[in-house]
Design a protein that fits this description.
By secondary structure, this protein is mostly helical. It has 6 helices and no strands.
């Protein structure tokens, strides 16, 4: 896969050395490159069904209120996930995936 951002990063560094590109622009490009590397290194998140969330909760002996506390959501949200009225996303989905892969100790 062609990585144009890496090419741009190298050019920015070269041009920065001769004074054509500012430090601020070079750092911004470096930051974008690091973000891309981070995103590519993160595990792919598994979208969990209501049944999978319920099974995860049961496997760890958690009530809906306890799971809500672990993932920073309301009990009503957990209920909606399990009924498939809503789907977890963002940080909550990442936490559910962490619990699935590593267990509850990862959050303690």
């Amino acid at each position: 896969m062609v990585n144009h951002l890496k090419d741009l990063q190298e050019i920015a560094h070269d041009f920065n050395e001769i004074g054509v590109v500012s430090n601020a622009l070079k750092e911004k490009i470096d930051s974008r490159a690091r973000l891309r590397e981070l995103r590519s290194s993160l595990p792919v998140l598994h979208m969990m069904s209501g049944e999978e969330i319920n099974q995860l909760r049961q496997r760890h002996g958690l009530s809906q209120a306890m799971l809500a506390a672990y993932v920073g959501m309301s009990v009503a949200t957990i209920v909606k996930w399990e009924r498939e009225e809503k789907k977890p996303n963002g940080a909550a989905l990442r936490l559910l995936n962490l619990i699935e892969r590593k267990g509850l100790d990862i959050l303690r």
